[in-house]
Amino acid sequence: MAYLVMHRGPEPGKIFRLTGDTIRIGRGSRNNIIIHDNEVSREHAQLQQTPEGFLLQDLKSSNGTFVNGQEVVDSWLLTSQCIIELGDTITFEYHPGEPDDEEEKTADLLTQNRNPAYLVVNTQSQDEPAVYPLDNIVTKVGRSTACDIVVLEPEISREHFKLTLNQLGYIIEDLGSTNGVSVNEEILTEPRLITPNDVIQIGKTITFQITETPEMFSNLIRTNLLLDTKELTDPDNTSVRRRKRTQQMEIPTLISSPDPSHIGTGLEGTDLHNQVLITYDRNDWERIVAPLVDTLYDAKIGAWVDQYLIEGSSDWLVATEQARRECWLLVVVVSPGAMRSEQVKRNWRHFHNREKPILLLIHQPVERMPIGARRLYRVQYNPAVPEASFNQLIKEIKRLKMS
Q: Averaged over 260-285, what is the pLDDT?
């Protein structure tokens, strides 16, 4: 018997067994799987059992059905583990077979009324701790942007350790890191249970701690956009919702940070914290991006572009990695070429996964935008009066900066 696990939605972690030949999913009360979310249509999608596996069909929903990021236009045969998305807000993971007892018990923990846990991260390079909600069954920590919590420090491996929720709490396990993991100054050699008083340490400058009272450590919660603790925990505040990564996409990351050449990138650490990152197809530079950058600077908005670095060079790799990490907002100049660009996709996914704000400047129409685009603020570029388009974008940037 196959099953679905909800990763994003009103009941994260819940397991839905696919019993019967036809399973309907939607907001209406007559569905087999009912999802109370406005992004979900009354009758959104249908699963039909066949000898080869379950056939997924979209029932002409308003916001679409997707498998591994690809829209389901007619039907899609689910033959192996994959990610199913309904619109931009609901994500399931499909599993053929039967969940084991341990998986069910662990998944149930996320649907029970329990106090949310947070991971506190202290590094020597940051004045104040960063606090991340632990709302996955398994949370990977490392330098790779494919991890759930990204810590960009030299002593951290690409995938350093993971935390797994079970009936007793969180189990920590070293993922074969270079510098190892210590718990209360003891080297971690096998998985062990972590308590709130335990201190996880990597090297000499990085420590972690699990807590249910994040306000004791910091008034900032990261998702990676910094949010006020009250906003994140206030049940009456519906404007802030942390979205998990929904696509199991391989995000290109650096195996080790490259060394800049003798030319250099011209960037010092933290230079870009107040900058806007603009990502685009280089063929659009002269017509739209260069005038946009000039207009932003006239409005006293710092903008960073990679135009003057050689794509693929060490300097380019160092600078673009720093720009993704430090820039607070991403502006995407949308065109068919941009949507095919691996660098644009990488920048988009990095900001989207951390809930850092993204604005769209629609230069040319495209057939399909990446996941999450539907809810983003967008400006339609008008070549007849480009200043009007730029000013509309500037107005929204300033509003976000002040909020």
A: 71
